[in-house]
Every structure is written in structure tokens, then in C-alpha cells.
User: Fold these one by one.
Assistant:
Number 1:
Amino acid sequence: MEQRIGETQIEVCILIFQNNYFSFPQIALSAGLLFGLITLLVQYVGLFMLGFHSGLLLAVVGLCAGDLTGVDWIPSPPSAWASVGILILSGLAMALLNLCFQVRGKRKLCVAN
């Protein structure tokens, strides 16, 4: 019986992770540690992530305030996908603004001064 090259590796991975509940937190912690080291060592990645998380926080506050106040002039998003789009767009906008208007550093990624 012939198997393709990739099927054997997939079966081995499935057998390793099948009943091992401690593997998922280990994978999450190692991915978080790797991403944290990258954001610490690469300045632009850290600035991008700082702006992205700031935009997410502002969007969450705005969506919650618009929903909890019940004011008519702040419309609530029609679907969950619209809320996700608002979160991602505000995160990206703040990340790009954070990269364009850096306070320290000699080089800037944005040309508009």
C-alpha cells in the first residue's frame, strides 16, 4: 500500500497530539514567547503591534459604548462580521499611524511629514 510523503508526517503529528492535553498550552506558550522575542528585537514589529493593540482597545471601547448607551446617533453594527471588520480596520489604522508618527528614531516608514 503506497502512501504519499506528507501523509506519514501528518499521521505522526496526529498520534503525538491526540491524547496529550498538555501539548496545546506548551505550543501556545512557545508561540507567545517566540512572538514576544520578535517584537522585542525588531523595533518596527513592536511599534506595529503596539498601535494594533491600541486600535483594538479603542474599537472595543467604542463598540461597547455605542451598544451600552443606546443612543440613536451611534448605530450598532448589523452583524458580527461588521464588528470584526471594525476591530481589524481600527487596529490597522492605529498601527500605521503609530509607524508613521514615531517620536524616536532616525528613520521613518512614512514619507508624509
Number 2:
Amino acid sequence: MIIKKKGNLLIAFAEEGDNEGRSKVGDKLGQVSLKTGKFTGNTCSMLKLREEYDKISPEGKLEKLVDRVIEQIRNDINHDWDAISELLKSCPKKNLIAFLPEEEWNNFK
């Protein structure tokens, strides 16, 4: 299966042997909108399109960024509290409070 970006769409096209021989080479198998994430088409292309969408969509990029920041926090946790402290200070207070156990929320409102 070949995935191509065309405008605001990712489109899956059949290669030889795709879809158990039910599709011809070059047949359009499915598409996903980069704006909405909505998929249409043959379900055999859904997983591959979704994987590609996750790589390039704003949500997918944010998820990768968050994962990388978590990894860096794990690395810094033993010796670089200043960077973690500065990061947390940039978060909205309500988000910091929500991260704590519920019984502690009133202590920080």
C-alpha cells in the first residue's frame, strides 16, 4: 500500500498483492482528512492511514512532543529540578491543582 498526501488528504493506493488481490495496482483504497481525521474507504487501509496521520497531524506531533518531554523529565528528575520547576510554573494553576490528589485541591485554591 502506498500513502500519498494530496492537499488536505492522505490517500492509500493499492500495490501488487494488497487487499488479497481484490484491488488492482493504483486503486484508491481509502483516505483520511488531515483537517478532521475522518476516514473513508476500505477498512484494509485504515490502520496504515491512521499511522501516517498520527505522524503528521498536529495532534500526533503534540503527542510525540509530550512523550519526549516526559522522557526528558525522567532524565532530569535526579539532578535538574530547575528546568522541571520552570516548566511547571508555565502551566495553568488549575492544571497543577488537578494533578494533585483531590483531597489536597482546597489547599491551593
Number 3:
Amino acid sequence: MSYSEFVQWDAFNKISPGGHERGDMQAALIAATTANAMSGRPGRRAKLQDFMLRFQTRVANTRDGVMRDVKGFFGNLRKKKSK
């Protein structure tokens, strides 16, 4: 896959999340709905965000940043293999 194609897929994923991100949203929706149904009190209602997993914020990828990450990853593999 070329770098250009990778950037296009990354941009598409940001517009229409799939996979893990969408699964996390679905699980959070089920958890919030269950919590609200089982709470038995009319106070604060659970929200979707209360159950969303929190990860580091994504940094915009630059060509140099991607190449640095790829070289670092393969450099570490080479070091482990030579041991």
C-alpha cells in the first residue's frame, strides 16, 4: 500500500469510524441504557460518554512522522531478532 493510499484510508476512517471505535460506541450505548434502566432513581441519567473508553488523542499524521514510526518499529524488530 502506498503512503498516499494509507493517508486516504486514514481520512476515510476519521469520517466513518469502523471496527474498534464503532464497537466501543455500541458497547457504551448498551452500558448506558442498562445503567439507566436499572438505576431505579430519577436523578442524573447516564450518558454515552460516561461509558466511552478514553485513549490518547490522535495526532495528525505527517509523512515524516509516519516514516519515523515505521523505521522505529522495524528497527526494534531487527534489534530483537539479532539478540
Number 4:
Amino acid sequence: MLPYIIGGGVAVVASVISFVLGSSHRKRTAESAIGSAEDEARRILNDAMKNAEAKKKESIEEPLEKQLWKAADKLRKNIDAAES
């Protein structure tokens, strides 16, 4: 009878240790993924801000008529590509 009690006790202790270690690992993994996502979000926002500044500077330097012709040419290319 005693070996069954010892075996059961060992199984319970092993289960508790496994649960604690698994929870700890899951938490570290999740925090790492969140940190990576936050870094990527910052990078994307920084790129967007740089692109917005460049577009703003470009639009200030370029006359409106030229901007409109560029937009029309771009639309024509898109239409031609869609028809092909």
C-alpha cells in the first residue's frame, strides 16, 4: 500500500512542478511576442511618419497641375493593368 501512496505523492508533486514551469514558460513567450509586436508597430509608425513628411514636402514643391497629371497617369496604368 505504501508504494502506491508514495507514487501518488510523486505524481502530484511532478504535476504541480510541471504546471508552474509551463505557466512560467508561456508567460515569457507571450511577453516576448508582445514586445516584438510593439517594436514592429513603432517601426511601422515611424516609417509612415517619414513617408508622410516626404509626401508633404513633395506636394509643397510640386505644382498642383503636375500632381493631378501624375494621379491621372497612375489611374490609367491601374485601369490598363486591370483590363489585361
